[in-house]
Specification:
heterodimer, A: alpha+beta, 60s Ribosomal Protein L30, Chain: A, Alpha-Beta Plaits, five-stranded mixed beta sheet, globular, B: 13 helices, 64% helix
Chain lengths: 222, 294
């Protein structure tokens, strides 16, 4: 059964004109913002495939900007995102990339804040659904539909076991867990989707306990 | 899910002596653990967005983001005022409402996808029209959105609500069928009559291709929302009058899916064939997407 809820048929409330080119693009921008974790200063959007061909007509550019400024799919300020960016002193550029093997509605985002930067390749899959394909050159995938923890760490024995143990001890159910590493013992990234938002004290416990951990980031789209 | 087909949904309503909307409300509660009040409050919040969207384009001309379309809801609204229309002015107002929602969508305004953004004009237009008739309470209209959802779920799960998968019949056709069935329930028809309204409306959209100019949700999407709001009202009246869909509604849903599968890709939201492929369609595409280049 593909659809089960009344609100999948009546809803969502969204800013038009297209769920894939507008609502999905807001969600991608929003994930980039959450991953950056601070106000962006300079952002480059490389549009790929149908995004590159039709972005003016669908407002995909405004939608991506709106997302990275922290707006949601139903925000009536989405069409004014370019003005909002100017007001907030966010510099941005849109370029076009070649489709290659990517999904037709794809964007590569390079966002820089005052203290850090993020590189995100993500696609809009239809119906407002968005999916990250690569994060900071790691081939990790996630949609942000569930609360998602992203661990940057060094590949060490027992890392996943420790994540599972701590989340389990605190009553969380892991929906999905995936690790990607550059090489054995090298830098690694782990994606962990859970059914409920993880409390701040549990995030702190993870930070203090996990072997080889650099940082934990959190993403959830609305 | 407690139902996949219309005949199952109709049986659930008949056996419990409740409306299809109430069946859906109970199922939504069981599946999500949310209360009746919470669910209806969320529906009402969506209805408010619908009410804003039906008015916005009739009160002032709204232009699309691309500049290709806009202002038709306002034009029709002004025309209605001189009282010379073929269609009764009150009824024609429904079409202005449907155009308005679609223009708001094309202008990056807020809409409710019903079931999609491209077909978001039809259900709101008939619901607001029904409310303004003064014959039905606001609560009855909010509950009827659960009816629309149930009918949409049947179509989405047995056929499709995606233009890319099933052509425009899957978006505009589905929205028209949902709106027709919902009106029958608001108007006091039986669950069986709701089913016939779905069958009648969907039959009239079979074969409709998805051929948007430039791939944008504008031409012909906006006009189709307007005209199909009239079809929804007409199909509802036919069903309430006792007209039946001789081909059972479930078979009509099934064949809509089959027709969609047989449609060539050029007529399924690729912006290649149909109206998109006409000389003017292609010229407009160039005009929009080469703007600002070189």
């Amino acid at each position: 059964m593909k659809y089960t809820s009344a609100f999948e048929i009546i809803g969502p409330i969204m800013v038009g004109p297209s769920s894939s080119h507008t609502a999905g693009a807001v969600r991608i921008g929003s994930m980039a913002r959450q991953l950056l974790g601070e106000q962006p200063i300079q952002v480059t959007f490389q549009l790929i495939g149908s995004f590159a061909e039709t972005y003016q007509g669908h407002g995909t550019d405004l939608a991506l900007l709106a997302g990275i400024l922290g707006m949601t799919t139903d925000s009536s300020d989405v069409p004014n995102a370019d003005k909002a960016a100017m007001d907030q002193g966010v510099a941005y550029t849109f370029t076009k990339g070649s489709a290659g093997t990517h999904h037709p509605n794809t964007v590569l985002i390079l966002a820089e804040g005052a203290t850090r930067s993020v590189k995100l390749l993500a696609s809009s899959l239809g119906g407002g659904k968005a999916e990250v394909q690569e994060l900071d050159d790691f081939p990790v995938t996630f949609t942000g539909e569930k609360p998602t923890l992203i661990f940057s760490h060094t590949d060490e024995k027992g890392f996943l076991a420790a994540v599972s143990r701590i989340l389990n001890q605190n009553g969380y159910n892991i929906a999905r867990l995936a690790l990607e590493r550059k090489k054995k013992g090298g830098s690694a990234m782990t994606i962990c989707e859970v059914d409920e938002i993880v409390r701040q004290e549990v995030v702190q416990e993870l930070k203090h306990t996990m072997p080889g951990l650099q940082e934990i980031r959190f993403v959830q789209t609305v | 899910m407690a139902f996949t087909h219309l005949h199952e949904l109709i049986a659930l309503a008949e056996n419990q002596h409740i409306s299809i909307g109430q069946v859906m409300l109970k199922i939504e509660q069981e599946q999500t653990g949310r209360s009746e009040e919470e669910i209806l409050a969320q529906m009402e919040a969506q209805f408010k967005v619908m009410e804003e969207a039906v008015r916005k384009g009739t009160e002032q001309p709204i232009m699309s983001r691309s500049g290709l379309t806009g202002g038709d809801a306002f034009r029709l609204n002004e025309y209605i005022k001189n009282g010379q229309s073929f269609i009764h002015p009150g009824t024609l107002q429904t079409m202005a409402y449907a155009l308005s929602v679609s223009e708001v969508n094309a202008g990056m305004g807020r809409i409710v996808a019903t079931p999609t953004a491209g077909s978001a004009g039809i259900l709101p237009s008939v619901l607001v029209y029904a409310l303004e008739s003064g014959r039905y309470s606001r609560d009855a209209i909010i509950l009827s959105m659960m009816t629309a959802a149930a009918l949409g779920l049947v179509i989405a799960n047995s056929a499709s609500i995606s233009g890319a998968a099933g052509g425009c019949q899957a978006e505009i056709g589905s929205a028209t069928a949902m709106a027709a069935g919902t009106l029958v329930e608001i108007g006091g028809g039986t669950p069986e009559q709701v089913g016939h309204a779905v069958g009648l409306a969907l039959k009239n959209s079979l074969g409709l291709v998805c051929d948007p100019v430039g791939g944008l949700v504008e031409i012909p999407c906006i006009i189709r929302n307007g005209l199909h709001s009239m079809t929804a009202l007409a199909a509802a009246d036919m069903a309430l009058a006792g007209v039946k869909s001789v081909i059972p509604p479930d078979e009509v849903v099934r064949v809509m899916h089959e027709v969609g599968t047989e449609m060539p890709a050029s007529l399924r939201e690729t912006g290649i064939g149909g109206l998109a492929g006409t000389p003017t369609g292609k010229a407009l595409r160039e005009q929009i997407f080469n703007k600002g280049k070189g």
